[in-house]
Design a protein that fits this description.
By secondary structure, the protein is mostly helical. The chain is built from ten helices and two strands. 64% of the residues lie in helices and 3% in strands.
Length: 276
């Protein structure tokens, strides 16, 4: 359960932790944009260098950050395999034939292999950067940051505060539900349930006794949270803030790094072209 990155917060007194949550949200958006703007490995290398720089200044253990990749390992392998088999092309990147194998709609080529590696790296960078946001920002700070960024929508009567609160609670409940799933699974295993043997359909059927109590537990936690909020006189609108969000010199440094990253990736895209 410690490998579940989304929704976890790693407490530390670092440069990244003390950044304004609004700047961290904007930095994440800019990083995602830079990843998709990059169309060659040099652009991805620039994004990876910035990410390593952020991890180093966050004081979050590097292995803990990498653990976030475990959740999408199967998705990354599946995406790479699909692109290897279906991406056709005649480009060559090393000595040897451009196409290694071709049968019907399936094709394995140098261009397909390179394109698959490029997509996998893009997916990994996306997950790692997203996990850094939750590792270095508390759910309360995330709620305040999202609400502040979406403040202009209040002019059209959009429930910004409610949306930010829902997103924060959902993010926080992910590791909680994962822990609950593990607890129920262990309890069912102790009663003789088998989740490891049999074909795919038998394994899926074995998880039905886990899903039903998990849903009941989720509804129970939702009721308890609702009662706790009502007991504390939570009204939702026109709430005051105990901590006011203010930009500092750290946020200026983060903004300059963000601008340099986007500019560098754009220049690499213009001058170096597509995947190299």
């Amino acid at each position: 359960m410690k490998a579940v990155a989304f929704g976890q917060y790693y407490p530390a007194n670092s440069f990244v932790h003390r950044l304004d949550p609004r700047m961290k949200l904007l930095f994440l958006v800019a990083f995602i944009v830079a990843i998709f703007v990059a169309n060659n490995f040099y652009g991805l290398a620039a994004c990876a260098a910035v990410l390593v720089f952020v991890i180093a200044f966050s004081r979050v253990p590097f292995l803990k950050v990498l653990s976030a990749v475990k959740g999408i390992f199967f998705l990354a392998i599946f995406t790479g395999a699909i692109n290897v088999l279906f991406h056709t092309g005649e480009k060559t990147y090393w000595a040897g034939p451009a196409v290694y194998w071709n049968w019907g709609i399936f094709c394995v080529s140098q261009e397909g292999i390179v394109f698959s590696v490029f997509l996998i790296l893009r997916l990994l960078l996306l997950v790692l950067c997203s996990s850094m946001l939750t590792y270095t920002t508390t759910p309360v700070s995330l709620t305040d940051g999202i609400e502040s960024i979406l403040t202009p929508l209040k002019w059209v009567k959009f429930p910004v505060h409610a949306l930010a609160l829902i997103m924060s609670i959902a993010l926080r409940m992910i590791p909680t539900l994962m822990e609950e799933t593990a607890r129920i699974k262990n309890a069912q295993t102790a009663r003789g349930a088998n989740f490891e043997s049999g074909n795919l359909f038998k394994r899926i059927g074995a998880f039905i006794p886990v899903l039903i109590p998990l849903l009941l537990s989720a509804f129970r936690r939702a009721d308890e949270l609702s009662d706790a909020m009502e007991a504390r006189c939570y009204k939702g609108e026109k709430r005051t803030k105990y901590k006011k969000l203010r930009f500092s010199w750290r946020d200026l440094v983060a903004f300059l790094v963000m601008a340099a990253m986007i500019a560098g990736v754009a220049l690499l895209r213009v001058y170096l072209g597509e995947i190299l």
